[in-house]
Design goal:
Blueprint (H helix, E strand, L loop, with lengths): L3 H24 L5 H5 L9 H20 L10 H4 L15 H19 L4 H42 L10 H16 L22 E4 L2 E5 L14 E5 L2 E4 L5 H9 L11 H10 L23 H11 L6 H9 E2 L4 E2 L46 E7 L24 E4 L16 E3 L8 E2 L5
Parallel strand pairs: 7-10
Antiparallel strand pairs: 1-4, 2-3, 5-6, 7-8, 8-9
Length: 451
């Protein structure tokens, strides 16, 4: 006889598998063949590859390694494995209906196996695979945005380039067209494929720094859903510090730009200035002059840009521990919260996530999601850079394979916290750790300041 706890665990895993998969297919609704197969950026695979890789990974870990069954569609394994083909060679894909059939065939067998799997011993692996799909879906969401931005830009460039049948515009005509193009561009922050862009300025919230007294608190997680780099949960002591209530907004960041912050090496670290001299950027990747976005978090900035802005304001980036304490620690009750608001799972009234808005939102949109000390927007909206280098916690053990986290403990990757508007709820919690190279901008990343 199966115990009630084991059966309820199976049912919870079944619900999460199905909920996550529904979100996955929503991302691919009405997708065209070119978008499905095209590589939008050298650092990212085509979105269609991510879809096939999700099926391949479930098949490999659950059906082959756990159940001992034969692989489903073995002809796809070289294409969809993570460590065989370079990203630029992943464009030669089956059609979307063929990949969808692959996912469905694997999932049917996975659900059959779930009924008999020794779930008490495997729950951590099942939770890992649900989060694996969630993380790939977030990547798909912002790669689709990158492709939409590329298509929009090409259309605008086509307007400015005269064709052989049209009279060549004079300089004044080109200037007016460019001015019109720029005004249209300024209405867009991140190309939006679901929600309308606001057309009225949002009032700016009061954003005082919140004082946090020194002391010990628990960081990390030993929960069954925790990934290897979140473990082990351990005590951490911090001196008193202050952290901003909200992430840095576009309006605040505009002051840095207007003062020549991108051109002044005084605000940049030596490494950051070398990065800036190579890239010669003068604004975030996802930027708009539309005042409707004044109160949205700045987005599409590298770690170096975030660091320079903090120097400009006389502040600094919070450490990972400082960020997590502000998000998770309830000093009144001396307890750790899984989420800033408590232990109830994320929903649309608590934070901007899971493509519910499919864009950034004003930083004060979710007061119900505030942490115990009053910090807002700690989960969802944009990932937040921290000052910390990605490294192992005490007691770290690789799971389910060494390459998931350990190979990135190289002293070069920086930790991001908090999730984004595209993060699925299964990968959204205060202890979750993301990591990227400090020069990366092609992600949904912003930051908040500390001092």
């Amino acid at each position: 006889m199966i115990s009630k706890s084991i059966q309820s665990c199976r049912e919870a895993i079944y619900r999460d598998l199905q909920q996550c998969r529904r979100g996955t297919f929503q991302l691919f609704a009405d997708i065209d063949p070119d978008t499905f197969c095209r590589q939008a950026h050298p650092d990212f695979s085509p979105v269609g590859w991510h879809l096939g890789h999700i099926a391949y990974t479930e098949d490999l870990w659950l059906l082959q390694r756990c159940a001992g069954w034969n692989p489903v569609f073995p002809e796809y394994h070289q294409l969809f494995a993570a460590d065989i083909l370079p990203k630029k060679q992943r464009v030669f894909l089956p059609t979307f209906p063929e990949v969808e059939l692959y996912l469905d065939a694997v999932r049917k067998k996975v659900l059959d196996y779930l009924e008999v799997a020794p779930i008490a011993h495997q729950e951590r692996l099942w939770r890992f695979l649900i989060q694996h799909e969630s993380q790939h879906c977030e990547t798909v969401a912002f790669v689709l945005q990158m492709q939409k931005e590329e298509g929009r830009r090409k259309k605008e460039e086509a307007i400015l380039i005269p064709n052989s049948q049209s009279p060549i515009p004079n300089a004044e005509g080109r200037r007016k067209k460019e001015e019109g193009r720029r005004k249209k561009e300024e209405a867009i922050l991140i190309p939006n494929f679901q929600s309308p862009i606001p057309n009225a300025p949002c009032p700016m919230p009061d954003s005082p720094a919140i004082e946090i007294p020194g002391g010990e608190f628990y960081i990390g997680s030993d929960g069954v859903e925790a990934l290897d780099n979140e473990r082990s949960r351990h005590l951490c002591y911090l001196e008193a510090y202050a952290i901003d209530r909200y992430p840095v907004t576009c309006s605040q960041y505009r002051d840095f730009m207007a003062s020549g912050g991108y051109q002044n090496p005084h605000w940049w670290s030596a490494e950051g200035w070398e990065w800036q001299k190579v890239h010669l950027v003068d604004r975030p990747l996802y930027w708009s002059e539309n005042p409707a976005f004044n109160n949205h978090p700045v987005c599409g900035v590298s770690w170096y840009e975030a660091e320079a802005y903090c120097n400009f304001t006389g502040k600094r980036l919070p450490s990972e521990a400082e960020w997590e304490k502000a998000a998770s620690w309830d000093a009144t009750n001396q307890t750790y919260r899984i989420y800033p608001w408590g232990d109830s799972q994320p929903n649309a009234s608590l934070c901007n996530h899971r493509n519910n808005i499919a864009n950034t939102s004003p930083v004060d949109s979710f007061p119900k999601g505030a942490s115990a000390i009053g910090c807002c927007d700690m989960l969802g909206n944009v990932w937040e850079w921290t000052a910390s280098t990605f490294d192992a916690y005490p007691g770290f053990e690789s799971y389910p394979y060494k390459g998931y986290s350990e190979v990135y403990f190289d002293g070069e990757h920086r930790v991001l916290k908090g999730g984004s508007w595209a993060t699925f709820p299964q990968a959204l919690r205060s202890s979750f750790r993301n990591w990227y190279y400090p020069g990366v901008r092609q992600i949904i990343a912003g930051f908040r300041c500390a001092k």
